[in-house]
């Protein structure tokens, strides 16, 4: 079973000709509601791919709360761990331009009240996977990862958005998932992708580094691989990262090897870009498997750990 401890937001999406710069006002015809929050998006993506997923988070006493809960249920996610908060539900404002690039502002709200005790009775232990991000208080996330490691569960941290970490924070992490910006923030500067992933990996930790249109790579104790990105016509890249994270966690939890999961996560992320919205474009497993052959098998990376 996959446990996702994280954020859930109401996304207010504005489609614009071009993203605003500092001090600039951009007009557009209207806006639309979408389900969001990195934790909830990743949980939904994983459930749509066939994993059993339980989401642990909080919503507020406002009209968004029941709507957000129902959205997860419709995606096949178990929501008995979705608790209430006196704060307003998390809300994000997203601007998307014609090329699919985006700009995002997030008011955390109820996500700030997600707590470690929400893991009580969640089934954490051997045979389960805990997936975390960085849109709830960092101390809660780090404590949850330590608790999961002690319980014998697989631990995955998608450190998004980027944040400085205290010494030893990554020790209980089995798989660290970051993009190039997040890797640079952790390392204190930019490095070549393979060198960055190798520096963030460890004797018991794999680092998966996503590279946007250049695909992704993984370096860890069991080997190193690179996969390209599936060629698609991108309409909205908002949900690509969350689709990748949810897919990677789902396929690993379902028992696939890291190279197999990495390839399917790359396809999932690409397909998620073909429709507007962080949640609406998430594909089901049949769609992913149907396009997998276009990607080709993951390519082993040699001598990566010494770079």
What can you tell me about this protein's structure?
With 307 residues, this protein is α/β, with parallel strands linked by helices. The protein has a single domain, classed as 3-Layer(aba) Sandwich (UDP-N-acetylmuramoyl-L-alanine:D-glutamate ligase), CATH 3.40.1190. Helix content is 30%, strand content 24%. It has helices at 38-48, 64-74, 138-151, 180-187, 193-200, 240-253, 258-272, 285-295; strands at residues 2-5, 9-15, 31-36, 53-59, 78-84, 90-96, 102-107, 129-132, 154-158, 175-179, 206-210, 216-220, 223-227, 299-300. The protein has a 10-stranded mixed β-sheet with strand order 5-4-1-8-9-10-11-12-13-14, with helices on both faces. Strand 11 and strand 12 form a beta hairpin. Helix 1 (38-48) packs across helix 6 (240-253). The longest helix has 15 residues, at 258-272. The model has no long low-confidence stretch (mean pLDDT 94).
């Amino acid at each position: 079973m996959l446990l996702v401890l994280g954020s859930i937001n109401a996304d207010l999406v504005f489609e614009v000709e071009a993203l605003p710069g500092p001090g600039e006002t951009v007009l557009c015809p209207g806006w639309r509601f979408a389900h969001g929050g990195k934790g909830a998006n990743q949980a939904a993506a994983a459930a749509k791919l066939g994993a059993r997923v339980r989401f642990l988070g909080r919503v507020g006493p406002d009209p968004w709360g029941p709507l957000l809960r129902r959205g997860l249920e419709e995606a096949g996610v178990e929501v008995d761990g979705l608790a209430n908060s006196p704060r307003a539900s998390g809300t994000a404002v997203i601007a998307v331009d014609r090329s699919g690039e985006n700009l995002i502002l997030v008011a955390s709200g109820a996500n700030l009240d997600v707590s470690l005790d929400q893991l009580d009775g969640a089934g954490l232990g051997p045979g389960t996977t805990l997936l975390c991000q960085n849109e709830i208080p960092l101390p809660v996330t780090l404590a949850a990862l330590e608790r999961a490691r002690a319980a014998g569960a697989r631990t995955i941290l998608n450190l998004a958005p980027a944040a400085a970490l205290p010494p030893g924070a990554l020790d209980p992490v089995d798989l660290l998932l970051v993009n190039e910006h997040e890797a640079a923030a952790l390392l204190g500067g930019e490095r070549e992708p393979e060198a960055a992933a190798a520096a963030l990996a460890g004797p018991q930790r794999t680092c998966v580094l996503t590279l946007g249109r250049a695909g992704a790579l993984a370096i860890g104790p069991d080997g190193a691989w690179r996969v390209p990105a599936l060629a698609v016509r991108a309409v909205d890249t908002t949900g690509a990262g969350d689709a990748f994270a949810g897919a990677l966690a789902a396929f690993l939890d379902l028992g696939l090897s890291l190279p197999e999961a990495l390839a399917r996560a790359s396809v999932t992320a690409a397909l998620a870009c073909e429709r507007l919205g962080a949640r609406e474009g998430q594909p089901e497993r049949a769609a992913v498997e149907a396009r997998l052959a276009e990607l080709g098998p993951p390519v082993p990376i040699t001598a990566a750990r010494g770079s």
